[in-house]
From TrEMBL:
SUPFAM superfamilies (UniProt xref): (Trans)glycosidases, beta-Galactosidase/glucuronidase domain, Galactose-binding domain-like
Pfam family, one: Glyco_hydro_2_N
Native source species: Pelagicoccus albus
Residue intervals of the Glycosyl hydrolases family 2 sugar binding domain: 40-203
Protein name: Beta-glucuronidase
Domain Glycoside hydrolase family 2 catalytic: start-end pairs: 302-598
Keywords recorded for this protein, A-Z: Glycosidase, Hydrolase, Signal
PROSITE patterns given in the database record: GLYCOSYL_HYDROL_F2_2
Length: 601
């Protein structure tokens, strides 16, 4: 092997890093990607492990897909001869040698380009890549993306060949101090191209984005905004809901934006009991989009939550994005139906999608099933609150999430943090994030999963106070609460009292405890299903006494993988607080929650 002269390699690596920072980020997202003309690039991709993160222009130029042309050529990798891996999917559960791998893996997909008619434009769209991506097409860098849970796309019009296109993606799941999430999480650090990859075709002028919502102060009016890409000034845009015999036309302004305010006296509002959706169509020039949209209004009134003018109690459950039966990251519509089906079976009308944006199928299936959703960014535990780049990542990823899910009736809460300490840097950071979120979407409620603290009453910690100042900017005060697991035993619940220093609705965003499914014994024996059931019974009685509580979210619906959970023969790298095991078996506490929620209907 020819050793790189140290000075050259050092310069090369520095250049790499600089160009990474300077390189263009992804382009404006195409809304409702599932409805577009497309070819799926899912399937088997080849891959090389870049153990030392040498990068795209480093020691081994993976991004260039170099091949040995003559016998004397020196090439020290070969995608053609490399192992393959499924996309979508994490690498940890596909390849035993990659179970714990944290670093960069280079993926390659070769594909032909469909013959296109003149003017048609082509985009590569990634539903997500965990945690960051550098994307190359036929050796040319298209750009990069930071964040493992939100979509991004690049225009590739004119860059594709009829056959043999080489799409190479450098994927890194390395944890980094200035990223979100930070360095420690209670979930598995999956890496890979974990969601769909699509080659999308749109007309020269196309419908880039649109928002279809109830008007801010009138349930019999809908407000529609359509954004065209490459529009001519005054271009006509039409909006239709056939079921309401509603058809309107508007002209795009000089920015390609058309606005409608439409009277809809017969509109039926969406709610969990009757998740009514309408087939909406938007057309302009050569482009036409259709999708199912529900209309509803979520508000607070003092300490109450109000959906379509009626008070609502959130019968919730928390979920990680894992299909525990197949193993690894969930990504498909079938996965969404499995997970949300379990929530429905437990009589839930609400699901907290923890602790990061889940795949788009979740909100679409929740719209159909009538399940309200809490969505969040992984501003979780230790974040580099002082770092402007970190704040930039948070704003970028919230912009991507809200752009993707803003037309989903099911989504009612954007959450900006989980269990983060009250300090000036964190409060400034979260105020910035909150105003960014509200500037994009002020139709949904803002929350954060806060910590409480126990005020001493004598020698015991029985009086809980929630007075985190960040709650002043939130619509819902949420708190994670582990009485009977991290604080005392379940019989201590009856002594607890709560003081919520805000006249706002309260949601218990987490509570619960662990059990190994099938492990039975006395209720005082930790990890038995009896202990978990006892804990739930006592917590539910305790919460009944806290009048501001307007929703409960047991942590968690399904056992999930976590490196923090090492107790042999009980955890074995699984967090056992699920009400359902990783094989889909329901624990005794599942049925307690099912009964309790039945009584709350
Ligand atoms: C925390 C945290 C969760 C974690 C849970 C637990 O509150 O928000 O991500 O998994 O508690 O300890 O199981």
């Amino acid at each position: 092997m020819i050793p790189f002269p140290r000075s050259v390699s050092f310069v090369v690596l520095i250049c790499c890093h600089i160009c990474l920072l300077a390189t263009e980020a992804a382009e404006p997202l195409i809304t409702n990607i599932q409805a577009r003309e497309q070819i799926s690039l899912n399937g088997k991709w080849r891959y090389h492990v870049d153990q030392y993160q040498t990068g795209s222009g480093g020691f081994v130029p993976y991004s260039q897909d170099i091949k040995q042309e003559s016998p004397s050529d020196r090439v020290e990798y070969s995608f053609d001869d490399a192992d393959s891996i499924w996309v979508p999917g994490d690498w940890n559960t596909q390849k035993p040698k990659l179970y714990y791998f944290e670093g960069t893996i280079w993926y390659r997909k070769t594909f032909p380009s469909p013959a296109t008619s003149p003017g048609v434009r082509q985009f590569l769209y990634f539903d997500a890549v965990a945690q960051r991506a550098e994307v190359f097409l036929n050796g040319e860098k298209l750009g990069e993306h930071e964040g493992g849970f939100t979509p991004f796309n690049f225009e590739v019009s004119g860059k594709l060949k009829p056959t043999g296109n080489s799409l190479i993606v450098g994927v890194s799941n390395r944890r980094e101090e200035d990223k979100i999430p930070g360095m420690v999480t209670d979930w598995w650090n999956y890496g890979g191209i974990t969601r769909d990859v699509r080659l999308v075709e749109v007309p020269a002028t196309f419908i880039q984005d649109y928002s279809v919502q109830l008007a801010p102060d009138n349930d019999q009016q809908i407000e529609v905004t359509v954004e065209l890409d490459n529009a001519t000034n005054g271009q006509s845009v039409s909006f239709e809901i056939a079921e309401l015999a509603l058809s309107e036309t508007a002209e795009a302004d000089q920015d390609g934006i058309a606005r409608f305010l439409i009277s809809t006296p017969e509109l039926q509002l969406w709610n969990p009991e009757n998740p009514k959706r309408y087939s909406v169509s938007i057309e302009s020039g050569q482009d036409k989009i259709e999708e199912q949209i529900g209309f509803r209004r979520i508000q607070t009134s003092g300490t109450k939550l109000v959906l379509n003018g009626e008070e609502i109690f959130l019968r919730g459950a928390c979920l990680h994005e894992e299909n525990p039966i197949r193993g690894g990251r969930a990504y498909s519509e079938e996965d969404a139906r499995l997970l949300l089906g379990w929530a429905k079976e437990m009589n839930c009308n609400f699901v907290r999608l923890a602790h990061y944006p889940h795949n788009e199928h979740m909100a679409r299936v929740a719209d159909e099933m009538g399940i309200l959703l809490w969505e969040e960014l992984p501003l979780y535990w230790g974040i580099d609150w002082k770092n402007e780049n970190t704040l930039g990542f948070a704003k970028q990823q919230f912009s991507e999430l809200i752009r993707r899910d803003k037309n989903r009736a099911s989504v009612i809460v954007w959450s900006i943090a989980n269990e983060t300490g009250d300090n000036p840097d964190r409060n400034h950071f979260l105020r910035e994030v909150a105003s960014h979120v509200r500037s994009i979407d002020n139709t949904r409620l803002l929350s954060a999963a806060l910590k409480k603290f126990a005020d001493h009453i004598g020698e015991r910690h029985d009086h809980y106070i929630v007075n985190d100042p960040i709650a002043e900017i939130l619509d819902i005060v949420s708190l994670n609460d582990y009485v009977g697991w991290y604080q005392g035993l379940p019989d201590s619940c009856e002594r607890k009292s709560y003081e919520i220093a805000f006249e706002k609705p309260v949601v218990i965003s987490e509570f619960g405890g662990g059990a190994l499914q099938g492990f039975h014994g006395e209720k005082e024996t930790r990890w038995t299903e009896e202990y978990q059931l006892w804990l739930y019974e006592e917590n539910l009685k305790m919460f009944e006494k806290v009048e501001k509580i307007r929703g409960l979210c047991p942590w968690i619906l399904v056992d999930f993988r976590s490196p923090l959970r090492q107790l042999p023969h009980i955890q074995d790298e699984w967090n056992r607080k699920g009400l359902i095991s990783e094989s889909g078996e329901k624990k005794a506490a599942f049925f307690e929650m099912q009964r309790y929620y039945e009584s709350k209907k």
